[in-house]
């Protein structure tokens, strides 16, 4: 039976890390998926608490808006950080 040498590997190619690299990538994608709903929910709860404490009826909207803005900022930061890892 003939033996064939494997093709030469490029210098910039990374060796396969096995399943660990795919698990890390899946964790980052899951984190991106949960950041926005959780931040909107937290903003809504804090706004509702301020509504009760200050006897207002509009602060929950501010909480939802600030929560969504904070969620989008965090998503952009996570995407930018994960974009640097992929090369």
Question: What does this entry show, briefly?
Answer:
Helices cover 72% and strands 0% of the residues. By secondary structure, the protein is mainly α.
Q: How would you describe this protein?
A:
- The protein is mostly helical and 87 residues long.
- The mean pLDDT is 84.
- The protein is 72% helix and 0% strand.
- It has two helices and no strands.
- The longest helix has 36 residues, at 19-54.
Give structural attributes.
rod-shaped; mainly alpha; 87 residues; single chain
The CA-CA distance between the termini, in Å, is 39 Å
Structural class: mainly alpha
Largest sheet: none
Radius of gyration: 23 Å
Count of helical stretches: 2
Low-confidence stretches: none
- What helical percentage do the residues reach? over 70%
Residue-averaged pLDDT: 84
Shape: rod-shaped
Helices and strands, in order, run as HH
Instruction: Give the beta-strand count.
Output: 0
Proportion in β-strands: under 5%
Spell out the blueprint of helices and strands.
Blueprint: H1 19-54, H2 59-85
Helix pairs in contact: 1-2
